[in-house]
# Entry
Amino acid sequence: MTLRSAWRKSLNFVMLSLTGVCALITVSVLIVILGYLAWNGGTSLHWSFFTNLPAPVGETGGGIANAIVGSAKLLLLAAVIGIPIGLLGAIYLAEYASPLPAFVIRYSADLLNGVPSIVIGIFAWTIVVVPMHSFSALAGGFALGVMMVPIILRSSEEFLRTVPRSLREGAMALGTSKWRTIATVVVPAASGGILTAILLSLSRVAGETAPLLFTAFGDRFWNHGWKEPIASLPVVIYTYAVGPYDDWHRQAWAAGLVLLGLVLVTNLVCRGLLSRQATQQR
Amino acid sequence: MGATSTTAGPAGVGWHPQALLRRLRSGDAIAHTVTLIFAATILLITVLLVFQLWVHSGPSRAKFGWNFLRTSTWDPVFDNYGALAFLYGTVVTTLVSLTIAIPLGLGAAIFLAELAPPKLSAGLSYVIDLLAAVPSVIYGLLAVFTLVPLMSKTVEPFLKHKFGFLPIFKGPAYGVGFLTAGLVLSVMITPYIVSVSREVLLSVPADQREAALSLGATRWETTWKVVVPYARSGIMGSVFLSMARALGETMAVTMVIGNTPQISASLFSSGYTIAAVIANEFTEATGDLYLSALIELGLVLFLLTFILNGIAQLMLMASESRGGGGQRG
# Structure
C-alpha cells in the first residue's frame, strides 16, 4: 500500500514536472530565435542597410531599401483587396445573412484560410501572371490580399457580434434605417477591434514568402511601377540565405531581424490594444 | 454565388415603383446587396481557386492519370512526371514533426491549463501565440545556419552511434534531410497544438476534476485519466489542424530538406516535399506539361489539407458541443 502510494506520488511528481519542461522548451524557442537573430543580424544593421540598393552580385555591402519599399507596396495592394471584401463580408455575415448563406460563406472562408500559402501563389499566378505575361507587384499583392480576406472576415465578424444589442435598438428607436445604424453606430463601436484585426492580418501576410516566389518574383533594383516584378523582405531573406556568399548570409540575418522585429512589434501592440479594450468593456 | 438580385432583400416585394423607391430611399436594400456581393466574392474566390487548379492541371491529369500518384520518376527532360517521391517526403516530414510536436505540445498545454497559476499561464500563452506569428522564412533561416550544422556534427552521429541498427538512422549524415525538416516543422506546429489544446482543456468542466480528486486520484491521474480523455476529440482536432499546417509548410522545409526526389527509409537522407518542389521549380518550369504537373502537385496538396482541415473542424465541433469552449476557425 505504501509502496503503491509512493509510486503514484512519484509518478505524479515526474509527469507534472515533465509538462512544465515541455512548456519551458516551447517558450524558450522564441528566446532562442530572437537571441540568434539579434546576435547575427544586429551587427549588420547600419543606416545604409535601410537606404541602399543591393550591391551587384558578388560584391559586399549594399542594403535592402528596395525590398522594404516593395514589401510596403505589396501590403498596400493586399489591404486594398483584403479589407473591403473581408470587412463588408463580415458586415453581411453579422448583420444581414440568413443561416444558409452565412454557413456557405463562413465555410468557404475557413476553407480558404486552410489553403497552403504556396497554393495561393499558384492561384495568383493563374489569375494575374498568366494573362499579364509577366511577374508583377499586382500578382503578389493579389496573392497576399486573398490570404488576408478570411482572417479579416472571421475576426471582424466576431467583433461586430460583440457590439451590444441595446446600441442597435437605441439607434433604430430613433428612426434610423438599418444601414445607417450599422455605418454610424455598430461599425464605429467595433472599430478598435476591427482595426487591430486588420493590423494583425497585415503582419501575418507580411512574412509570407511562398506566395510571392512566382508572383512578385523579386528584383535587385528600384521599381516604380505595379506591373513589374518587385522585391520584398521575405523573398530577399530566402534568396540571401540559400545563396552562396557570406555577405549575403550576413544580410539575410539582418533582414530577418528587421522582418521579425516588424511582425513582433505589430503583434505586441495589437494584442495590448485588444486586451485593453476587453478590460474596458467589462 | 450570383444571387445579387434585389429580391434577395428581406422585404422581398414585387416591382411596384413606389415600394421600390421607398426601399431605395432608406438604402437598406442597397446596403444589403452591396455587402452580399462582397461576401459572395469570398465564395467566388474559393470556387475559382479550385477551378483554376483543376483546369491548369488538366494536361498532366490527362496524360498520367492515377499513375501520377503511383510513380516516382520526375524527369523534366523527357516530360515524365510522377509525384510519389514528393508525397513520401511530405508524409514522412509531417510524421516526424508530429512525433515530436504532439507530446511536447500536449505536455505544454496540460501545464498551462491544469498546473500553472493563471498569471504565469497567461504570460506563457502570450509568448506561444507570438511564436505562431514568426514567419516561416525566419525558421528556415535559423535552421539553415544553426540546426543543419548541429544535426550533421552532433545529433545525427549520436543517433547513428546509439540506434544505428534501426533502418531509419542509417546512412551518411549530411544535416539536411527528412529528420531536420521534420524537426523544424515540429517547432513550427507546436504553438498551434498548445493553443488549441489549452483552450479545449480549459473548457473541461471543473466538476470532472473535483470528482476524480475527491476519489483520491493524484493530480496527474486526474489529468491523464479524466481531463485528457474528456477533451480527446478537441485535442485530436488540434493535431489534425497542425498536420494540415505541416503538410503545406513551404519555406522552412525547402531550405533544409535537401531537395532530392528520392524515397529512402533513412531519416538522414535528403528528400523533397510537394510544397518544396513547387517553390523551387515553378519559375524554372519550361513547357506546358511541366507546369501542369507542378500545378497538379498543388491540387494534391490542396486536397490533402482540405480533408485534414475538414476532419479537424468536425472534431473541434464535437468537442465544442460536448463541453463548450474549443476554438472556432
